[in-house]
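note to self — DONT lose this again. spent like an hour looking for the file last time. sequence + predicted structure for the chain T wanted, 84 res
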Amino acid sequence: MLSGLNGMIPPGKIKGLALRLDKMAHKPANLAERVQQLWLLPPQEMVPHFYAIVDDLLALVEARTPHISTQPVRERLQLRLEQR
């Protein structure tokens, strides 16, 4: 999703993500650090941080491509959160 917004090919590997993010003009604030932090958190703490990143990505899609509806994705994510 983020690569598409920036007209780039996805990195393919997690370890190349930080370098690729540095080259992207359109991305959530501190994304590389936030993704890296996910690996260090216990699962119970990681999940809300992960969903915050997803929410920021969806907000970016909405801002950059208003003709694309993110509502179906948001509804599916909300359903998963409610099932927990």
